[in-house]
Amino acid sequence: MSDRDGQATPLLERITARRTELTEQAERLRLRLAEVEGEAERLGVAEQVVK
Questions:
Q1: What is the rounded CA–CA span in Å between residue 43 and residue 37?
Q2: Cα 37–Cα 41–Cα 42 angle in degrees, nearest 5
Q3: CA 5 to CA 15: how far, in whole Å?
Q4: Would the CA dihedral through 27, 33, 36, 37 be positive or negative?
Q5: Helix (H, G, I), strand (E, B) or coil at 20
Q6: pLDDT in tens, 7-42
Q7: How many Å apart are CA 12 and CA 22, to the nearest integer?
């Protein structure tokens, strides 16, 4: 893909690379959130046991 002065291809490549980075970051954040939610749940259970 290219426009008249050849700028579309590098732009498309940058957009695609950034989208890939953001998708990977979102997946890491989803995994971290699941870990944190699990820990919060375990602490809630521990809190109930101690009461």
A1: 10
A2: 120
A3: 18
A4: negative
A5: helix
A6: 789 999 999 999 999 999 999 999 999 999 999 999
A7: 15
